[in-house]
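pasting for ref
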Amino acid sequence: MRWLVGWSSTAAGALGGAVGHGGRDEGRYDGGDTYGGQVGYDGETLHPVGSQLLWGDPDPLWAVGDWRPDEVRVVKADPQTRIAVLGTCGASDEQLRVGLFAARGGALRHLTAWPGSYTAVVQVGRRITVCGDLAGARPVFHTPWAGGTAYATAALPLADLIEANLDFGHLAALLAAPDVPAALHDSTPYDGVRRVPPGHALILRAGAREIAGYDPVASLAVAAPPADPDAAVDAVRDALVDAVRARLSAPRHVPDIDPGPVPGMGPAERRAARGMPVPGIGADLSGGPASGTLALLAAGLPGMPGTVLGHGTGAGERLLAVTFNDLTTRAREEELQRAGALAANPRLHHVVVTGAEETLPYADLDGPLTDEPGPSLVTAARHRARLAAGSADHFTGYGARQVLDAHPARLADLLMDRKRRHLVRPVAALTKADGSVLVPARVYGAARRLARTPYRAGVENLADRLLHRSFEDDPGGAVGASLAALTWAGPGPAARWLTGEALAEVSVLLQNSAHRAGVGPGQRPGDYRARAALTRHAADLRILEQAAEIRSQRLHAPFLDNQVVRACRALPETLRVQPGARAAILRTVLKGAGITDLPPGWGAPAHGTTATAARNGLRLAIDPLLTLFDAPLLAEAGLIEARVVRKAVRAAASGEPLPLPGLADLISLELWLHRLLSRRGTCWTGTPGRARAVPAGIAPQRRAVSSGG
């Protein structure tokens, strides 16, 4: 894991006034409930383990983890005005300096408009500004500490700093309504640690904090001005090309040198066995349009994207394209054939990674502790097998579906804008998939109801459904999923297995949110649901990066870059709701970049194999999963009943039509709790051994429903 962490204290001398090491004004621990300043219990200077100091007192900032030298840049205008950029950023030092001057005057959007994926921190005197991203893949967290505010790009270091207990309300909401921002709000799994919403910045002034938005959202009151589809697609192409070029122009990273041969192993097998990626740049090549677009763009742009000369194969210019072939299912033959046709490009070096039962979901329940829980924990071993054959810098197509496709709720947006004729093609496609003549009336009726339902009423309806355990059967097919998504808020797939008390607590959270004065999305339901889905997907990708991490490897998801997200949001809804819109947009992007030779059927929708793989994995891992839920921590916390979940696991493994994503949510959260409570040590030095998150284990606090709160 890599993160940055720092704090903004109160005015100099307010933390104790003791003069510390080097003559700096440092507060000391005074025997109270919190730390004072920077000195711990034993007189050690308090700082993160494995960190490098970017700037010092009174508002220090550290970079923690295995950052590459080119991923950490600090530009100064004067001793009290500076900017730190961590990650892949395509801006030059002069552009960073211009952005620093703009931020000094209060303009924050400049800090988020450069190509790449990064976190920007600006210090102007005692004012600290930390910008999160639009998607939520690079979040920012904060917590009150020592009379000021500590912040980080990971929640666990802050939880260690304040010895935070678990926030059971957040964990319940994570299972009951994971796609509803009103339920999760700004909470994290750690009580007292808060999250900055996507598209916002954390501003600290001498310890006082403020959350400010830097990107406008679509208004509910005024329709967006009509956008030119061709110009919007050209903007997506330019943003994607800039995002890929920012990675290609970064210095090449060569992992640790291979220590030597192993009998019976070639170089590729040796690297994979030792957990070492191939030097240079590579990409996923699943056969789908997103990964294929990035692979072809990276291979076609100048900059020698492939292996570093003198290391590995010595190919020099070729890009390593990795295709995963799941041998347990045979439903992706057409995609694999398209991947092979794309890999015939002489600029690509194709590697096919095969996976059998050992790469199924739930096959490997051991893994590293991640910052937060996420459903990708149960599939981490599957992804690690693919990434182990990848390059030091590896492109992935994650996020393309969320930023390009139309959420079903966007049909209501079209009705609100009086664009009914644009519903014809998507409704016709659903009718063809379902085969029922009643589909158009059902879909149109659901979209019309959503368009006429206020946000507050939608949230209150979900709260009532959770309170009365009103859950529908798992919707089957595209029509069922679309109808279920045509709401302001819906229950999560795991909600049906929660206890009544846990559901009641989430219902209280939703009701309080709905009745809070002035709170609402201020935007159309389709745009609101699409942003929430993107945030959840980006958060799960962040957890996947940590759970499936290969040493010395960086995963790049250009579709989640700020500029790409902005360009995709500018696409007209009338374009994105049409069937096959994502493939058509990406085909146009490639054509604009000079790439036209695509295999037949490129971009055709793939038949999902996720459910088949998940059910096969459940069936093979049934015994360890039942053992996991013999005495689950989630039951100790009062969120589930163990016998209910064990019964659901057996039923799903035997083939009953249960929502498999809900079981993945439950199992991954239980795994994460076990890893969190079994960890040793802390993220900080200068603290006693007990100064870590959740020091008392599972200790449920008084519920909101029982306390009347």
